[in-house]
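Researcher: We're teaching a course module on how sequence relates to structure. For the next exercise, students receive a sequence and then see the predicted structure as C-alpha cells, so they can try to spot secondary structure elements on their own. Here is the exercise chain.
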Amino acid sequence: MTKLKLLSAILFAAVVGLAGCSSKPDNEWPSWFDVQAEPEAYFYGFGEGVSRDSNLAARQARLNAQAQLAESFAIYVESEARQAGQINLGDPETSGTFIDAVQARVQETVQAVETDRVERVRLPDGSTRVYVRMRMPRNQGARTGREILDEFDARMRETRG
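Model: And here is the predicted structure for the students to work with:
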C-alpha cells in the first residue's frame, strides 16, 4: 500500500464527487450552490442529482455532497498528520493503514452531517434536479481529526511494540 493507493483513493472520491455534477445549467443553480461562504468555519460538500423520482434525485445529491465533503475532510486530516510529523506516510505499511483508518472514520463522520441547504427544481421533461449543500463545522472536523490521529497512534503502538 503506497502513494498509489492514496492517489487511487483521492481519484475515486473526486470521480464520485464529479459523477453527480453536470455542467451548470443556464441560471438554474441556486445562488448558494458551489459557494463556500465561510471556508474558515466549515468544510463544505455540494452535490446534485437528477431523476424522474424526486426522492432518488435527493438521495443522489446527498451522496454526491457527502463524497465531496469526505474528500475535503480526508485531505485536511492527512495534511494535519503531515504537518505534525506524527505519521510517517513515506512508509508503505504505515501509509496504507493510515489511509484505511482515515477513510473509514471520514465516511462515518460525513454520514452523520446534516444537509444544510436543499433546493428542488422541476425540469421541463418532468424530472427533478436537486441541489444539496452540506457543511461541517471546522471545529468538529478538528476534534474528529485529532481523534483519528490519536486512534491511529494507539493502533501503531499496539502493532509495533
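Model: If you want an answer key for the exercise: The chain has one domain: 3-160. The two ends are 21 Å apart (CA to CA).
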